[in-house]
Amino acid sequence: MKLRIVLVASSVLLMSVGCSKEDKAAGGAVGATTGAATAAAGGGDDPKAYYKMKCAVCHGETGAGDGPGGSALTPKPRNFTEAAWQDSVKDDDVKKAIVEGGAAVGKSAAMPGNPDLRGKAALADGLVKLLRGMKK
Fold first, then answer.
1. Are 102 and 93 in contact, with CB atoms under 8 Å apart?
2. pLDDT in tens, the chain (136 residues)
């Protein structure tokens, strides 16, 4: 029981650490950072660095949905390695979920959007390509 409380508290903390006042004023979701903060933290325009910084905490380093921040979430984070899911979803829907959050595509509202990716089509497309490459 104590471990679950610690995991839930850790998840909340991890998702809220990057949220700045500017993001909230712009309607950003918890866990979303500004473009400048993303670049300063090493995300820049590199999809792999961005994924590692923003997505891996819940989705895991390999995309299996097994990140430490996602262990206390219900539903569990998407497993990007599942071929059935990969074959069932369009790139535009994946991109929309990444930028606008899970609720924008009828999925979990626990998946925050990343409004810092608006206007950064190449980075968002790179993230989609990265996720597609996780298919087993």
1. no
2. 444 443 444 444 444 433 333 333 334 434 444 445 545 454 579 999 999 999 999 999 999 999 999 999 999 999 999 999 999 999 999 999 999 999 999 999 999 999 999 999 999 999 999 999 999 9
Residues 125, 115: Cα–Cα separation, whole Å: 14
Query: 60-82 burial, b for 16+ CB within 10 Å, e for fewer?
Result: beebbbbbebbbbbeebbbbbbb
Which ranges in 17-117 belong to alpha helices (H)? 21-25, 35-40, 47-50, 56-59, 83-88, 91-100
| Structural contact between residues 57 and 67, judged by C-beta atoms closer than 8 angstroms | yes
> Looking at this protein, which amino acid is placed at residue 62?
T
Q: For residues 88 and 133, what is the distance between their CA atoms, to the nearest angstrom?
A: 15
Q: Is 91 helix (H, G, I), strand (E, B) or coil?
A: helix
